[in-house]
Structure formats: C-alpha cells, structure tokens
Amino acid sequence: MEYNQLILSSVLLLPLIAAILNLFLWGNSRAQRWVGNLFVVLHLVVSALVLKQTVAHSMIVLNVGDWLHGYGIMLAVDALSAGMIAMASLLALLAWFYSYEWFTSESVKALFNVVYFFLLMGLTGAFMAADLFNLYVWFEVLLVSSFVLFTLGGKKAQLEGTLKYVAINVFSSTIFLAGIGVIYGLTGTVNMAAAGIALDSLGQSSLANVAAVFFLVSFGIKAAVFPLFFWLPATYHTAPIGISSLVVALMTKVGVYVLIRFFTIVFPISENEVFRVVFMLIAAFTMVVGVFGAAAQSDFRKILSFHIVSQIGYMIMGLAIGTPLAIAGALFFLLHNVLVKTNLFFISGLVNRVAGSYSLKQLGGVLTQFPLLALVFAISAFALTGVPPLTGFWGKFILAKAGFMAGDWEIVTVSLAVSLITLFSMTKIWNQVFWKPLPQGSSFSVSTFSQMAKSYPSMVLVVLCLTVIILGVSFFPNQFIEYAERAAQYVVNRTDYINAVLNR
Amino acid sequence: MKTVILAFTVRLLMPLFFLFSLFLLFRGHNLPGGGFVGGLLAGIGFFLHSMVFGATETTKRYRLNPIRLMAVGLAVAVVAVAMSLFVGAPLMTGLWSSITLPLIGKLGTPVLFDIGVYILVVGMVLNVTFILTKY
To answer: Does B89 touch chain A (CB under 8 A)?
Structure first.
C-alpha cells in the first residue's frame, strides 16, 4: 500500500513542484523550459505507473490527511480515472512540446511555463477526486489556469472569447455548487460513494432529481452538450492553438468524465427511465446540431470546434444506453476523440504557421506543397469520421453494437447518419485547404516540408508522433478496448467502487 | 499621495500590521485566523506603504520580490504537505512535535502549511498591487 500512496501523491504533486520551480526561475525561460520538459515526462511516467497499479489492484484509494474513510478528502483512482489521467498526461506532454515555438514574448513565456502546470495539476486532481466538493475545487484550479492560458498574448479577439468562457464557466460552477448543496442537504455527505448509498436508501426523492438536474446542467455546459454548447465554438478558436488543443480535447472530456461518474455512482441513470430518455435526446441532438454547425462554418478551427460538440454526443449516447459495453464504447470513443481531435487542431495550427490564416477562403494548395502534411490530415480526418480500420470505426462500432443489443436502434441510426455528415464537413476542409490551388494574394512562408520541419521542428514532430499513436491505436485496438471494458465494468457495478472508497 | 502626516502614520503602523498579522497566523489553527487572513493583513501593510512611497520604494526598502515570495510560500506549503509521506502516513496528515513554544503554540506541519499560505498570500497581494500601480 505504501508504494501506491507514494505514486498517487506524486502524480498530484509533480505538476505543482514543476510550477513552483518555474516560479523560482521566473525570467529565465530557457531554464523553465527544461524544468517543464523534465516534469511532463516524469508526470507521464508516474501516471503510467498508476495505470499499471490499477490494472493489478483494480483500485487505489488515498485517504488524504488520514481521516476516517468517507469523512475527509479522499482520492480514489480506478481503471477509468487512471486511464483518464494517463491520457491527460500524454496530451499535456505533446501540447507542451507543441507550444515550444508559439510564444515570442519573454513575459508571456514565463507565465505560460508556470500556469501550464497548474492546469495539469487541476486535470489530474479532477480525475482523482472521490468527493464532490473536492471535485469542485479541482475544477476551479483547472478553470482559473485555463482562463489565464486563454488570454496569453492579449489580443482583442482572445479577450472577447475568454470573457464568454469565464462567464459561462462561473455560471456553471455556481449551479454545480448548488447541486452539491442539495446533495449535502439530502444525504449529509459530499463523498460520492457515501452519497450514492444514502440516495439509494432514500428511494424516489424529488429533491434528488433536482440535484441530478443541477449536475446535468452544470456538466452539460462544461461538456458542451445540446443545448448548452453555444459557448464552445465562440471561445475555443481564439486561444493560442497549443492551449486550445489541450483544453478543447480535455476540458469537455472532464465534463463527460464527471457525467459518467456522477450518473453511475451517485445517481445511476440506468435505474431511472426518465433520465435515460433525456440523455438519449441530449445525445441525439448534440450529435446532429454539432455536425450541422460544422458543415456551415468556413473557418478551419471553427469547423473543428463544432465537431467536438458533435462527438460529445456519441459519448453521452454510450452513457445513455448504459450497458457495460456501451460505456466501454463511450470510453474508447473518448480516447479516440481526444487523440484525433487534438491532432487535427495541431495540424490546423501548423497550417496557420505556414500560411498565416485559419480562414478556408485564404487557404489552399497544401496538398501540392506539403503532401506529407496532407496525408497526416487525411489519416486523422478519416479516423474522425470512422472509416475502418481507424480508431473512429472501432469506437462507433462498439457503440452501435451496444445500442442494437440494448434495443436502442433509433439513436444508433442517428449516430450513423451523423457520421456521413461528418465526412462531408471533413471533405470541405480537404477541398478548401488541401486540394484547391492557393488563392491569389496568399502565400506560404516556407516552400517544402523539410523547410517546415526545420522552422517548426517540435510542432512537426508532435504532429507526426500523434499520428503514429493514432495509427497504433487503430491497428492494435485490442488492449485499449479490453481496458475500456474493464473500466466500464467497474463503473457500472458501482458496489466495488463504493466499497473500496468507504473501506467496507 | 505623499503627505507628511500619512507617511509618518504609515511608518508607525507598519510594525503593528505585521505583529497583528503574525498573531492571526499563529492563532489560526483552532481559532479564527490563519495563514490566509494573516497574509492579507501583512499585504495591506505593504500596500499602504506603496500607496504613500511608491511601489519601487517599497520593493527596495523591504527587498521584496513578489513572485519569489509566491514561489517560497508554495514550496513551504508543499514541504509541509509532503512531509507525512516520509513517515509513511498519507498525504497531508498533520504531524505534531512535542515542542510547545510560548505565543506560537505546538509546532507541527499544519503550522508550517499556514506559514506557507501566509507567504504565498503576501506575494500574491503584492504582485497584484505592484502590477496595478504600474498602470
């Protein structure tokens, strides 16, 4: 147990230590960079160790401050949490190296190198928290850091976008807090496991439904589900691309993660037909509206932002179907989405670097100029739409299978139709950015791929690495699917989680 | 805002602010107070000083480096939090020594944690103040 405590504590403390060291090194951005390099790698290694331990022990619980089980702050890591932490850590590493060449001003660099690690700590903590209030605190750590990172550079559009982002998140946090209040008033605890048991013994209670609605709205906003997604496309395209890729990929997924956690452990929707139908509807509308939004846009990053919304629908669909297989599908889809979406954002940033624009009108000719970049984009785009044998196919296949097995063929039909429109909007990017000749008045800052690699080495390297990872997951999906199934089993059979947290 | 009366008063008040902030810091474990409130109060002392004499004068006189202070405060807090790992207890478990000092009370990691918070808050308040006075 000693070793488990140690790795769990260090996965949380490492980013904090990195942030502190970088505060000491304020003004010396080169040294800060090296500290950062060391700690993103260390964090990934330790989160891999945590992952390994959860495979061996199924669950690690850390009783912070040595209070009685269920009373103090508790951190609990099961297969789902460990997978999320490892994924976040990998993404944080890639985005860290990707952002290497983005900022030029020294003061911005110094701030970035500090705040980035607070963001990473918030992410790690949010995936570990076993009680609702602790979760709220980690969310705030995460949000405040992302507010700062979004405004780095201080352009007018950025400030406007961030203001919307801050406003909507403050609103959603308030609702979250209200939900916690109701849960606490009902059950006398904020521990998720203990609250779950207490709500069970209360039976059908209308106040419990109120709390569930609070959580649904609050995390629906954070996960950007229909009809609460409007803020996402309005803000994500204004931030520095390395940041928006990371936050885009992970922020909404933290929302999805919490939805899965809350609606399986505290308030299991599999036993509540009304909520299940509501989730189905949300999933369907999120998929459809997101993809139509994407099809209507004409900005590289805005199309991608709308796609996030659409893809969140698939994850909610898995949660709504609620069988272990469906949740496993949702989790695999989540992994797929994070990898592919981030890569697409990274590619858009690279195109922006060489062509100086995100607007589809001003872009073009990437295929003839940089065939390799076009290939990398094509792989990710096909993966996103779900062409076999790439990652999206496996995710959608499991979800569709689970849906048919549970008899929810309506939602499966919607999801498959949405895939087609996804393909359409991806071909739109392909036609405009890659295929059509470069429009008059636009030009590339470098002329060949090797020159691009020389000018932006770490950005190119990160994009290539991520593509290799996507191909790896595509061709060897077995381990990942098995892992997702294990995690889903654990999530659906909530007694194991509850017993482990409460030490019963 | 440099007037003789204000400058004189602030100079007189400074020690009072610090003493009272330390008092709040150390009484904070069982009674109202603690590192956060104490740090704010100490911050107000520096803040008043910089309102009268200007931020550069305050920085020079007290050899302040707000960002360094924040770093030190966080580092102290992390050390206090992680100390329990070395004796095999979970993270953030309070370790108490048997030494009891007059006025300060029993020594232990929670006190160290509060001191860390105190320094961090002072650094934070100063950082915000100095940035705002620049504009």
So the answer is: yes
